[in-house]
């Protein structure tokens, strides 16, 4: 190996091979990220796409008429138009609408919806009823492609609709065995209740554990055992927590399929996450702060509560928000502790029955009816938006309150 | 030093007042919750499982070809559920291992700083997607496409469930493996470059081997997640426990069976309910074993470079 | 102020190395880490089959100069370089030249021993394997270890993981690894600074041995070391090459007052 060889070797086929592999690999390492990003994008688009469908509906109870956006703005105005279209007189309508019972029943049996389009044109109000027969439920593209044929083939009291499932009424309606009147209200309230209760239980325990381990625990076997245990608990599948909740809370403590049983189960599930985040936050507080507090004559708990804990709030808050996000998306353990039951009412207290967003979505997915796929998709969009909000919040907290020691 | 005065004003040692001691006791108690949780898990799972084995012989559990506790003639062969879990997990790993390791290599060796933050963000996003959403996607998006490509593919099948699972566990592999790769000292990379290695050779011949224990740990950890993953399996892989290794068939994983059993009605104390807990115990032991193994390995490689 | 004086400085040269005897010629080299300039217009010829020491106070650019000789600086993001480094007639910074190829011709040994977590044998033959060599590895490994004066100590445990060796043995292993591919030029960046005096002495005598086969450039901040082993010495200060020449002449009779101050231990 002597002079001049440096340039010659670029002609060497073996070297060319090595260079080629090197270049290919440098590109290959980016590929998974691109695929992952594409998967997320496709997942989001597919879900959004599924929240819309084209339907042919045969009406029985209602007029089957649609009303322009210019004619009505509120649900009540639409109901008035609908009643008129059904042939009721002014007095009848006034009497009907001032009778709370009539209106309650009407609202339970019917749904006022703004369709993106009907055979009468874009953005029309319709009133759908539980007894409507849905003859066709087509995906957006399929439906738009066949739009004209569908329109041609409509019978007397059939209606063609471009239905956005995710509307205000979807959020405010209770669950139903009928997709058109199925809504998220109960699941939303259930999620809020459950999350609140879960956090109320798990934050004190999680943070308490962290404080004990970081500030008090002697370096001994027991401490080491608690630490290892905490880490292992974080790796236990969530469904196993569900079995624990089923045996201990639902059956053992006889709480039944209630919010309380669910909250206790979820609290145990996310406690390790909170605890680990809190420990990290505690560890990031420099010892000089602790020494300074002691030097001013603070007791240990004064030092912790007045100096250390306040400094950890952003870190703990971030950890809690991320744990909350995890809790909101969990379905498996809750299926064990009774969330799968059909619940028609919003919870009234910790001992109420309940359901939550992901469980409601799971039930819709497994309902095996194509329109429930639409409501499941709409539910997923709501769930993802909620999670997105939480992640944004966590990100903001981390940004805003980041302390550099 | 005048001892007599110092004892009067310093008689109360800091941190030893009753209030202080109470606080410490409360904090200690909270830290025991996690220990109690583990204890409760073990007691619950294994007492029910013990009851189960009083009625069902171990040989039945290990060797019966089916898992059908609710049939008139029930069979209790865990093998059927293990085979389903294996199919689901294996397909997930086939996706997650190569993609995860490439991502780890990208994060540790190639990505400029801002880019690696972005990639980590994408991985966090993937980690944050609720698994029911993945299940929905597998069943309603992926399966219809795959049914056109693979003849004989059932609506519920471990292929599309496993493919999506692969993405759900990818972040675990890429995070742990990239940490392990970054822990490889710079001096080793320089030594390899100085010997005329290309970047590819540095990564594959020096960094990978030096980080191999961390990489193995990452894979074991991801396996544990996959075995315990429930909703994707319950929604898209199916809930039909039969002993098969044909990935086009509808199968049941341990987790999807547990979901199926618990959403049906099984009175406490019934044999079917005990059978459910015996599956839970198997799942728990399996994932715990994986997790402990992964931790052991990670601790070993930490020692090496410290 | 000092900086300005230094930048305009005309390098003091004793008995300059003629181009035909130089293994590497550095010509008007300026090197920047981002905005920070680390080398100012450095020109120097390194002779074949001799030991040249680069000395100077910490942070003066010794490592930077050394690492420009085998393009290791390419691995630092944001590095920019002007000037030429001509190795055996080829400018290694020519766009036609592959840095990977450069490093195969120019070996390097680092400050801290950095054996791979592989067996002793695999460490030594690593470079050969990169080049696709599959046969005769045993002989090459033995010769490299012999030249690195390590053979007798490790010949019975070639299959052991290299991390178990002592620091001095590890550094000799790194030298063996670097010379196994027979690079005509070997760069060493403070190779003994992490070692005890006995290990240092072994390596110094080894380097003197290696002169027969290789050209060596060694960075050191140990003046005695330079005096003991180097044929020529290059003195740097604040990124500028102040003075260069045969070691004994420069050490006994430095012309620049900064060289004199450094050599007599007044700063550094
Ligand atoms: N990777 C780098 N990035 C930025 N600046 C660097 C880098 N390496 C060295 N420097 C700077 O270049 C100058 C010379 O450094 P170096 O060559 O390592 O000095 P020496 O080896 O003589 O101690 C120093 O000012 C140092 O701070
Ligand atoms: Mg240096």
UniProtKB/TrEMBL annotation, chain A:
The UniProt record lists the keyword Membrane: yes
Molecular function GO terms recorded: phosphate transmembrane transporter activity
SUPFAM superfamilies per the UniProt record, alphabetical: MetI-like
Span of domain ABC transmembrane type-1: 188-393
Transmembrane parts of this sequence: 24-45, 186-213, 233-253, 259-282, 303-325, 376-397
Protein family membership: Belongs to the binding-protein-dependent transport system permease family. CysTW subfamily.
Name of protein: Phosphate transport system permease protein PstA
Organism of provenance: Meiothermus hypogaeus NBRC 106114
Automatic annotation (TrEMBL), chain B:
InterPro entries named in the record: MetI-like, MetI-like_sf, Phosphate_PstC
Domain ABC transmembrane type-1, residue spans: 82-294
Gene3D superfamilies referenced in this protein's UniProt entry, alphabetically: MetI-like
Bilayer topology term: Multi-pass membrane protein
Entry's localization field: Cell membrane; Membrane
SUPFAM superfamilies the UniProt entry points to: MetI-like (SSF161098)
Transmembrane segment boundaries: 22-46, 76-107, 128-147, 159-181, 202-222, 275-294
Keywords, sorted A to Z: Cell membrane, Membrane, Phosphate transport, Transmembrane, Transmembrane helix, Transport
Taxonomy, superkingdom: Bacteria
PROSITE patterns per record: ABC_TM1
Chief location of this protein within or outside the cell: membrane
PANTHER family according to UniProt: PHOSPHATE TRANSPORT SYSTEM PERMEASE, PHOSPHATE TRANSPORT SYSTEM PERMEASE PROTEIN
Role played: Part of the binding-protein-dependent transport system for phosphate; probably responsible for the translocation of the substrate across the membrane.
Family to which this protein belongs: Belongs to the binding-protein-dependent transport system permease family. CysTW subfamily.
Name used for this protein in its record: Phosphate transport system permease protein
Organism: Meiothermus hypogaeus
Gene name, Swiss-Prot/TrEMBL: pstC1
From TrEMBL, chain C:
Presence of keyword Transferase: no
The keyword Electron transport is annotated on this UniProt entry: no
Ranges of residues in domain ABC transporter: 24-263
CDD domains assigned to the protein according to its UniProt record, in alphabetical order: ABC_PstB_phosphate_transporter
Family annotation (InterPro entries): AAA+_ATPase, ABC_transporter-like_ATP-bd, ABC_transporter-like_CS, P-loop_NTPase, PstB-like
Record-listed E.C. numbers: 3.6.3.27
Keyword set, alphabetical order: ATP-binding, Hydrolase, Nucleotide-binding, Transport
Alphabetized PROSITE patterns for the sequence: ABC_TRANSPORTER_1, ABC_TRANSPORTER_2
Pfam families linked: ABC_tran (PF00005)
GO MF assignments: ATP binding; hydrolase activity
Organism domain of life: Bacteria
Entry protein name: Phosphate import ATP-binding protein PstB
Species whose genome carries this gene: Meiothermus hypogaeus
């Amino acid at each position: 190996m002597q002079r001049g060889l440096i340039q010659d070797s670029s002609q060497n086929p073996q070297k060319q091979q090595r260079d080629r592999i090197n270049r290919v690999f440098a590109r290959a390492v980016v590929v998974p990220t691109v695929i992952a990003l594409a998967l997320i994008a496709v997942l989001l688009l597919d879900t959004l796409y599924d929240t819309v469908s084209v339907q042919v509906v045969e009406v029985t109870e209602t007029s089957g008429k649609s009303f322009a956006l210019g004619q009505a703005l509120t649900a009540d105005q639409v109901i008035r138009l609908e009643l008129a279209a059904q042939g009721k007189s002014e007095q009848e309508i006034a009497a009907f609408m001032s009778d709370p019972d009539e209106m309650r029943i009407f609202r339970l049996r019917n749904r006022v919806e703004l369709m993106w389009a009907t055979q009468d044109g874009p953005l029309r109000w319709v009133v759908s009823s539980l007894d409507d027969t849905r003859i066709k439920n087509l995906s957006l593209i399929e439906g738009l492609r066949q739009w004209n044929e569908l329109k041609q083939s409509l019978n007397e009291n059939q209606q063609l609709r471009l239905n956005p499932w995710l509307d205000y009424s979807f959020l405010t309606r209770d669950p139903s065995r009928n997709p058109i009147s199925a809504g998220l209200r109960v699941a939303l309230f259930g999620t809020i209740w459950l999350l609140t209760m879960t956090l109320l239980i798990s934050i004190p325990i999680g943070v308490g554990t962290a404080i004990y381990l970081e500030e008090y625990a002697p370096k001994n076997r027991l401490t080491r055992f608690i630490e290892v245990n905490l880490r292992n608990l974080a790796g236990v599948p969530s469904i196993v927590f569900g079995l624990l909740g089923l045996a201990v809370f639902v059956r053992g403590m006889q709480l039944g399929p209630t919010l309380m049983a669910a909250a206790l189960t979820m609290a145990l599930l996310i406690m390790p996450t909170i605890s680990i985040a809190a420990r990290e936050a505690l560890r990031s507080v420099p010892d000089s702060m602790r020494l300074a507090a002691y030097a001013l004559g603070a007791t240990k708990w004064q030092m912790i509560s007045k100096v250390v804990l306040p400094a950890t709030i952003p870190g703990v808050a971030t950890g809690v928000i991320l744990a909350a996000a995890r809790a909101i998306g969990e379905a498996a353990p809750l299926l064990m502790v009774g969330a799968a039951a059909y619940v028609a009412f919003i919870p009234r207290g910790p001992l109420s029955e309940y359901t939550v967003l992901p469980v409601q979505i799971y039930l819709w997915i497994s309902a095996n009816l194509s329109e429930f796929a639409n409501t499941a998709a709409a539910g997923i969009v709501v769930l993802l938006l909620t999670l997105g909000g939480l992640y944004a919040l966590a990100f903001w907290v981390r940004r805003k309150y980041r302390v550099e020691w | 030093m005048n001892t007599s005065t110092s004892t009067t004003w310093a008689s109360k040692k800091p941190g030893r007042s009753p209030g202080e001691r109470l606080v410490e006791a409360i904090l200690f108690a909270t830290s025991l919750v996690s220990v109690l949780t583990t204890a409760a898990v073990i007691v619950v799972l294994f007492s029910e499982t013990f009851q189960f084995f009083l009625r069902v012989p171990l040989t039945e559990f290990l060797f019966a070809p089916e898992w059908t506790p609710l049939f008139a003639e029930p069979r209790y062969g865990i093998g059927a559920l293990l085979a389903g879990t294996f199919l689901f997990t294996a397909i997930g790993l086939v996706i997650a291992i190569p993609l995860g390791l490439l991502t780890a290599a990208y994060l540790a060796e190639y990505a400029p700083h801002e880019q690696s933050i972005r990639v980590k963000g994408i991985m966090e996003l993937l980690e944050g997607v609720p698994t029911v959403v993945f299940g929905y996607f597998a069943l309603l998006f992926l399966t219809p496409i795959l049914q056109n490509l693979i003849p004989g593919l059932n609506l519920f099948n471990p292929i599309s469930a496993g493919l999506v699972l692969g993405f759900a566990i990818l972040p675990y592999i890429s995070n742990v493996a990239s940490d392990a790769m970054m822990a490889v000292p710079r001096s080793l990379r320089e030594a390899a470059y100085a010997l005329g290695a290309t970047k590819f050779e540095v990564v594959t011949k020096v960094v990978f081997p030096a980080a191999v224990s961390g990489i193995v740990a990452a894979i074991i950890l991801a396996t544990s997640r996959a075995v315990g993953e429930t909703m994707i399996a319950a929604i898209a892989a199916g809930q039909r426990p039969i002993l098969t290794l044909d990935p086009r068939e509808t199968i049941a994983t341990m987790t999807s069976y547990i979901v199926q059993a618990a959403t049906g009605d099984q009175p406490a104390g019934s044999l079917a309910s005990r059978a459910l807990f015996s599956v839970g115990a198997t799942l728990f032991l399996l994932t715990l074993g994986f997790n402990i193994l992964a931790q052991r390995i990670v601790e070993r490689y930490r020692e090496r470079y410290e | 102020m000092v900086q300005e004086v230094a930048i305009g400085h005309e390098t003091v040269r004793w008995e300059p190395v003629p181009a035909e005897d130089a293994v590497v010629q550095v010509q008007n080299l300026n090197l920047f880490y981002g905005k920070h300039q680390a080398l100012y217009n450095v020109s120097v010829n390194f002779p074949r089959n001799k030991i040249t020491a680069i000395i100077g106070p910490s942070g003066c650019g010794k490592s930077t100069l050394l690492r420009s000789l085998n393009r290791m600086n390419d691995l630092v993001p944001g590095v920019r370089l002007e000037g030429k480094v001509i190795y055996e007639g080829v400018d290694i910074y020519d766009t036609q030249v592959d840095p990977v190829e450069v490093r195969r011709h120019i070996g390097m040994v680092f400050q801290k021993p950095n054996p791979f977590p592989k067996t002793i044998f695999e460490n030594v033959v690593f470079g050969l394997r990169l080049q696709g060599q599959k046969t005769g590895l045993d002989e090459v490994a033995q010769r490299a270890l012999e030249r690195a004066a390590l053979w007798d100590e490790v010949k019975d445990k070639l299959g052991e993981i290299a991390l178990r060796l002592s620091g001095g043995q590890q550094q000799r292993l790194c030298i063996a690894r670097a010379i196994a591919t027979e690079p005509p030029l070997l760069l060493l960046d403070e190779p003994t600074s992490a070692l005890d005096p006995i290990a240092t002495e072994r390596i110094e005598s080894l380097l003197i041995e290696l002169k027969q086969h290789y050209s060596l450039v060694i960075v050191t901040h140990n003046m005695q070391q330079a005096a003991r082993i180097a044929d020529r010495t290059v003195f740097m200060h604040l990124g500028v090459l102040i003075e260069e020449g045969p070691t004994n002449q420069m050490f006994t009779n430095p012309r620049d007052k900064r060289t004199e101050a450094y050599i007599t231990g007044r700063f550094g």
